[in-house]
Amino acid sequence: MNNKALLISIVMAVTAVMLVQGYVQKVEEDARKKFGTQFLVMVAKQDIKEMDTITEKNLEYRAIPKNFLEPGAIYADPREKDEEARGKDIRRFVGTIAVVPIRKGEQISFSKITEPSVRTGLSPQVAPGRRAISISVTEVTGVAKLVKPGDRVDLVGVFDLGGGRENRIAKMLLQDVVVLAVGKSVTNNPSRTVELDPISGKEKVRSLAEDVAFNTVTLEVEPSQVPALALIQGGGDTQIYLSLRNNDDSDRINAAPVALRDLVPEAARGGRLPAGR
Hints:
The protein is built from five helices and 13 strands. By secondary structure, it is an alpha+beta fold.
């Protein structure tokens, strides 16, 4: 008798599960017909503040009916089942900046994020634990002003120790330093500025992509290096020269300081310096 009751209970349970599954499938089918096919949409995994830098932990994909997609929403191919591919797709947007506050669960659209630029300011591009500092440059000290944001440079300081030209020395200060900005141009994207034409009085747009009118370069350095660079810049005849390097070259060299007397032995003996030296 107990076995019969158990069998009946199992059959009823299985039947109930099948009925529930059928009902759920019908509801999903009705929803697809009413709201459209579901899409995997990129949403905020947590609250994102305005001007926050987007990281992987900020984003995830969520299935949303097609009719509920916001204009410009970022979504994946609904046929894409590979989790690794989705993660790679999310990483494409890491480092972008939120231009408006984005709530948890809110869809990410192209109008809500942007690449770091003049619009977002410089601070989002400074890596945590690092600092930005600007140094003055000229055509000579700034590699003919061919330096662009994103380049990497070495810094060489030329110091006047007093007592004549023979006592000037050059010393490698920093190596493999990231250039965050040149003048007001903070990205390799074609940023622009709007100026007032002094003749016509009308506004005109000037591209900063090929701007060489800048006289400062902003670098990303360690916090402990900021006071030294500030001191050097305020030190009389001291100059800082940039030396441009290939972005794929991260090697450091052990470069000893160089004095004029090392290059010109006559200077060490008090003799006349050769012409043109």
